[in-house]
Amino acid sequence: MSESKMAEMSLPSLLEQGSKIHQLASDSSIDQESIRKGCQLLQQCDEMIAKLGLFSSNETKDDISTANLKYLLVPYYLGELMEKLQEEDRLQILKASQVKFKEFVSFCETMELVPEEELESLAQGGSNNFSDKRARKIARFKRQRAAESKLSEIKERRERRGRSTRAAALSTPVEAGEEDVFDDDGDEEREAWLTTISLAICKALDLLEMLKKEEEMLSAVKERQLQDGGFSSTILDERAKKAEAWHRNAASRAQYTTPAQPITCATFAQDVLEGRAKVSQAHDHKHQPLLFGPASVVGGNMTTERERMVAQVFQPSHRMPTMSIEEAGEMEMKMMNEWQESTKQYIEEATSSWHNDGPKLGPGSEDEDDDAAVDKARAFDDWKDENPRGAGNKKLTPCG
Length: 400
What we know:
Blueprint: H1 3-8, H2 11-27, H3 32-52, H4 74-83, H5 90-110, H6 116-124, H7 130-171, H8 186-229, H9 233-257, H10 266-273, H11 295-298, H12 305-313, H13 325-350, H14 353-357, H15 365-386
Helix pairs in contact: 2-3, 2-4, 3-4, 4-5, 5-8, 7-8
């Protein structure tokens, strides 16, 4: 499959075809061309997932939607297919496969999907004690068998429900608009994907141990060959291959260490997920209002009064958006920042000293207030002298 056709495929299509090839490679032996095609499909799928930013290190398994859980298995599928490649340099194949398995286990650890005992073993670097290894393998084998039996149970339950649904449909006609009560539940689908991920974790840990032992054996054989042959062109070729492998691994890790340019438009991201658009397409995240009417009006060349009237008549029955959701969010954020700044300024003014102490008076204002108070008191005393208490109440005097 050419790279141009692969670039035009949607994310669900890439995962579906890649998982089919992985299933065929797991069940039976297939040719190397099909394995390389599956690796290319899954690699493209992995790059698109990183570009879309489907997962974040701040999320847990409860934050991921059921429809996106299957994309967690992409590194595991890719690691298994890489391990089945047959190349001259087997050591590089083993290293690349281990990188994908470690990436899968590390991300599942971030999503809180790895069991506690496995986390303790990974933190300690793996115990060399034979009894500890045996106990760890037995516990892992039990978890693997439990996950396989659980998946078989879910599959049988779905098949029984499907048979009962078909039997009910044959016996009783279903009217239009009537809902099917035997539809798969979302909780069951989520449980199935989580169980599949748990089974993949067990297999990935076993494969990591096996590939590590094989890598140690191949390294020992190569080292012995170098010691027997002495310093020759073989050593120079080996050093050149190591340098190339180091640069290749650094380039493959760059897509995870350097964050990709995020897609901020939710509508464009949904189009990419459903296959209506490609990631490489340029998108300015702006939604211009549509114009209806003649070509001159749509083109914007409204030169006459008649064309302006036509532009006002030929309009849709609903109001068209004048800005995108992103622009509205930026405007609301700007208003919120201005409100916070003004509120902070009001609080500072309310707690400042000049507001609590009152307005400051001039140096001669206190003397003027004192003189005015004295004059007012003297005038009131003079009035009391001229008008004694009860002088105007003639009706209460006995001989008035």
